[in-house]
Hints:
Blueprint: E1 2-5, E2 18-21, E3 32-34, H1 43-46, E4 60-62, H2 68-71, H3 74-81, E5 84-87, E6 97-98, E7 104-107, E8 110-116, E9 125-129, E10 134-138, E11 150-152, H4 153-163, E12 169-172, H5 182-193, E13 197-199
Parallel strand pairs: 3-4, 4-5, 5-6, 10-12, 11-13
Antiparallel strand pairs: 1-2, 2-3, 7-8, 8-9, 9-10
Amino acid sequence: MKVIQLKQNPNVYCGNSYLLLGEWNTIKDINAIVDTGSDDYFISEIEKIFTGVGKNPVEKVILTHNHFDHIGGAKALKKKYNAKVYANILNENIVDYTIKDGDSINLAEHSFLVIHTPGHSSDSISLYCEKEQILFSGDTTLFIRDTNSSYTQDYFETIKKLSKLKIKVIYPGHGDPLNEHPEEIIKATLKNLRSCKILSN
């Protein structure tokens, strides 16, 4: 599988967008985008990428949550490519299908597990590919170093879920991919959270 981090508009605040393609761009591979930044800036880049002969450049769009810096380009992708948009909650005129914790969704040439990961927002999801051991984490905070703060029970449970995964690379909603000791980072965060005050939701 190929994961391409698309360039974002340097003049506005944007989340990351990732284009997922099959390794060989075969007909059965599903071209997909995870998150769409704040606008349609990346479309000109998609047009320059080889996405397969006779294939729709973008068939599926997955939104990790409903914040403006992650959904801004979704309407443009629907209009240009007739892409279908998936998210944890419906958003009028944007989302076509809702997905929930435990669902599987095919992207590129692999199946991804949908994991409900509230904490940053109630509708946050992460996408995990067991075969490739990669995680798209959206805006879930993965680094907690202090032990004196307060966090919600939802967020605590999210980190517990993620700490059980075998992960080689994390593609976050902001910043660069994390490929150095991602499992150890999440487990350290969980350890620190156990010393913090956990608030009921």
